[in-house]
Hints:
alpha+beta
Amino acid sequence: MPYHLLFLALSFALIACQPPDPTQPRNSPPEPEPEPVEAELRINEVQCSGDIEFIEVINTGTTDVDLRDWTLSDDDDPDDPSEIADVGTTLLGPGQLTSVEISTFGIGCDDETVFLFDPDGEPVDTAEPPTPSLGASWGRFPDGTGAFAEVVPSPSDPNALFAVDPWLDDPFAEPVTVDLMISEADLAILDDGTWSEADRVFVPATFRITDEFGTGDPISVGVRQKGTTSVQLASTGRPGLKIDFDRYVEGQHFRGFTKLNFNNQSQDPTHVHEQLTYEVFRLVGLPAPRTRSARLLINGDDRGIGVLVEAPDTMHYLRANFDSTFALFEAPPWLDLDTPSNAVEFDLDEGDDGPAARQDLANLMAAIRDAPAATFYASLDDVLDWDAVLKHIAAEVFVGHWDSYTNHTQNNYFVHTDDDGVWRLLPWGVDQTFAGPVNLYGEGGQGRIPIGCVGDPNCLGGYGSVGVLLRGCLGDLQCAEAYEDALLEIGETVAASPYLGAGMRDLADHLAVPNTAHLIDGIDVFLEGRPAQIDRWTACRRDPAACEHCESFTVDARSFIGCMGPANFDTANADCGARDMSLATFDSLDEVKRAHGELVRRQGPVNYWVGIRNMTWVDGMPLDLDYWVTGGGPSCGVAWGLTGEWVDWPCNQSEAYLCAE
């Protein structure tokens, strides 16, 4: 054997015979090579609307990251030096934040994406900042891992959710005082716009508020007239006003609000309707403005009580209630959603002012107009958020909002669509709620829709002044039952929420408005009786054979029968006659009030015929009692559902009725 081969053989033998190293496990695998650690940087905050634009970056990993060669841009091409900002030159530790003031490119709100690139020029994160509420930026919450939301601007510091001041959160709180100083010349300009929308312009004013925190500093704002039938002169009355906090001082806000409305509540003698109504909407999960009662002073003159109302056309309100907003339209009075040519008349309050939003509204109207009666519900499922729409309509009906979309005016509503093209209704102008019960199935110029019309499009066609979404829904039994379910849910929720009535009474005590105690009592009756009324009407519609159309009771041994109707005056009196009775006549106001109390406890706060025609009892006896709201007249007598007071009413209207022996 050659010597060099013999030497190699002996060397291998010696190695094989060496004892194992006791510090190493026997048969251990080879040590793996360490894997490279991937940097975990993310965009954490973007400010696109302030005086200083910045982008904040966070290290969400577990090791330090060398920031050299990491870049930010509003362009997906990382090689364009004019659109690049360097993240930094130091190490960024785990959980640490760094912010970069952007000067090489502008960050556009709503229509731009910002990119974070790693040293290889690969995009690792993006953000699409919308226009935030005044005083807010767009950031992740919690930091690094959460979804983007409005946050308090905090470059290089942890994010906190942005929220406007909670002073509007309690609608039943004591009123604040709003003190406006307006020059005589500008008061005259406001007066010029009292009756004409075209002549309404903003004028400068000084705004100061006194509340539980004391008297605030005066700030410069813009104010202009608002309202239609409720308007009053700014120089002498209590005007409804739009208050714009950044009209003349860019970027100014008041406790997070850029706009507020002062509603004069001239059509609400109690001054509690708006606060209570919007609280009902919020209670059942619907978007609604927040409110606070307020006393208005103009140049030191006390103009009386109204209410501050959050403006729906602000980014904070929209972002608090919707994931996205493509367009928000305010509807003009008397225009429904089934005529595409009406789209040009709707005011675009938020969204792209191009043709796309208005065309989408016209497309919605065409879809509603063309939806087959038998499949109205299913045909519109892709363009309407039916759950929200039906709950909105049910809430309007529940609170007796007659001057609304649902009933004969098609008034006081907004329509909102998100980026997915799904539409919803939003409430507005609710000062005339709780003034009387609205028929559960809608009512218009042709009267109340009777239960028997539900599921019958031909019958419903005679009630064209009722909002098309309710009218069309009632013609499709699947939709009608979904609407009834929404009514029942609202009734159950309100019945289980006694704080509504208690809060309303607390507010009434704070306001101490003279001569309204009976109206406040009537609202209590409404809140207590409306859920039972809904239960009864829906049960009767779903099972007519089991329905007790009329119910008897006694007052001081005298027999009465209350019937749901609806029927016109002559038909109602004839039905009473068939029972050996007549429409109810009375000997005293005490008997009137007691009979009313017994009826509404059984049937809810329903308007009903009593036996008055042309200021005479139907039995021919002279009418020697006065329980009129505003004086009698030559027509027929209806008892108002809230208080039982009488109203002169067209005899051909359809109402419930009260018979008496």
